Amino acid sequence: MKKHLHIALAVLFLLFLLISQLSDVNFGKEVGSNFMNFSIDMMKFLPFVFILIGLFEVWVKRGTVEKHLGAGAGAKSYVWAILLGSTTVGAMIVALPVAYTLYGKGARLGVVFAYVGSAAVCRIPMTIFEASYLGVEFTLVRYAVSVPLIIIFSSLLGRYLEKSNYSINKGEK
Hints:
Blueprint: H1 2-23, H2 26-59, H3 62-69, H4 76-86, H5 92-104, H6 109-121, H7 124-134, H8 136-163
């Protein structure tokens, strides 16, 4: 049922784009143009991302992830997660598959949440852009507020979910 709904929505969207082109509706033409530009950008970018994620899956051993990001790693695991998240390029489209891989290799849920949070908030390219337009002081204040909050809330959420025996489904339907 859900698959049929997705197909129907895709057909409706394509039909909307076609009718917009034929009837010269500017809004529909702009939507179609933006959709094509975004799709082309993703096709240039995503294959390399998935190759890198695949290499990470194969080359990084589970023991290494468990040692630095697992149950026995302590507070330094959050530092590693923040550093790893800040070097993530490509926003959340890259961060989420990496987070899934980290969790599958033994990283604690709280650390995975810290990685995702830092990938959203602390990326280096975004920080440079922000500092150049809004000032270094603003960026430092934002980091001073954001990073502790990421650590606190990811830790709390991770502990809560681990106590409630939460686990991520690995491909089951």
